[in-house]
TrEMBL record:
One of its GO terms (cellular component) is membrane. It comes from the Eukaryota. SUPFAM superfamilies: Multidrug resistance efflux transporter EmrE. The chain crosses the membrane at residues 12-30, 42-67, 79-100, 106-126, 133-150, 194-213, 229-252, 286-303. The keyword Methyltransferase does not apply. It is a multi-pass membrane protein. This is Sugar phosphate transporter domain-containing protein. The gene is LOC112284219. Pfam families: TPT. GO terms for biological process: transmembrane transport. It comes from Physcomitrium patens (Spreading-leaved earth moss). Keywords: Membrane, Transmembrane, Transmembrane helix.
């Protein structure tokens, strides 16, 4: 009986990890396909679709399905903190989607792997928290790898590179600020409840940005759908997967650990690179792959150094 229960738990955990990989890599590749290959050049609108789906599915999961207990916003100050996090989150996602228009997924993932570097920088600037010297030492190969990958990237695009760096920095800033702003017991929210409140705020922020910077998107979308209804299917699937990335992140952490998720994340980048090269046939060089490999190796060392320093 106990062996059967253990087996079913293991199967469930493996299934969760598989769903996490599928949703994470799937949304990344679909974003690339829509924004670059398919020709849907509206990254702000695409991000707004993602946030709309996250708001809707979060409410269904928490209010109806009771996946996690609903946590309420307790003060105006807490609400303003969530607004600030939402704006930074929007900046990260929009910048990342813009970068996918110009950069191959392999290079995008190499830059994204430098998140620990930006996290360490922001943590020091905002909290004066110093890490052990070994932790900082592991950031050297992380950054060096991206420098090497940039030099060896045949599809290098400066604007795409800047947007990707901005997305990575904003993602790190959000994680540091979240720890600072929502640190008290009365203000802490689990990731699912935080998404429930952040997503609608993000839609409100992104709507005027879409109307101002992508004013013809609805007309173009309707005209495209008349020619090829497949575009609507891609947008719906892509938006739903954006929510499931967050859901599976939460469930994998809950049923394993944050460290396991971090290790899986390191491997996910490598898998995404291989799959994207096979699908999109973007050119890669030995220098570029060597740089990316060095960055991933640095991230693995960073994770281990952080674990030992605690």
């Amino acid at each position: 009986m106990r062996a059967g229960l253990k087996m079913s738990t293991s199967v469930f955990t493996v299934g969760l990890i598989g769903a996490w990989y599928f949703s994470n890599i799937g949304v990344l590749l679909l974003n690339k396909y829509l924004l670059s290959n398919y020709g849907f050049r509206f990254p702000i609108f695409l991000t707004m679709c993602h946030m709309t789906a996250c708001a809707l599915f979060s409410y269904i999961a928490i209010a109806w399905m009771k996946v996690v207990p609903m946590q309420t916003i307790r003060s105006r100050t807490q609400f303003l903190k969530i607004v600030a996090l939402s704006i930074i989150f929007c900046t990260s996602v929009v910048s990342g989607n813009i970068s996918l228009r110009f950069l191959p997924v392999s290079f995008n993932q190499a830059i994204g792997a430098t998140t620990p570097f930006f996290t360490a920088v922001f943590a020091y600037i905002m909290t004066f928290r110093q890490e052990a010297w070994l932790v900082y030492a592991t950031l050297v190969p992380v950054v060096t790898g991206v420098v090497i990958a940039s030099g060896g990237e045949p599809s290098f695009h400066l604007y795409g590179f800047v947007m990707c760096v901005m997305a990575t920095a904003a993602r790190a800033l959000k994680s540091v600020l979240q720890g600072i702003l929502l640190s008290s017991e009365g203000e802490k929210l689990n990731s699912m409840n935080l998404l429930l409140y952040m997503a609608p705020i993000a839609v409100v922020v992104l709507l005027p940005a879409t109307l101002l910077l992508e004013p013809n998107v609805l007309g173009i979308l309707i005209a495209s759908a008349r020619r090829d209804v497949y575009i609507l299917f891609l947008l719906i699937v892509n938006s739903a997967m954006a929510y499931f990335v967050n859901l599976t992140n939460f469930l994998v952490t809950k049923h394993t650990s944050a460290l396991t998720l971090q290790v899986l994340g390191n491997a996910k980048g490598a898998v995404a690179v291989v799959v994207s090269v096979l699908l999109f046939r973007n050119p890669v060089t030995v220098t570029g792959m060597a740089g990316y490999s060095l960055t991933v190796f640095g991230v693995v060392l960073y994770s281990e150094a952080k674990r030992r320093s605690k």
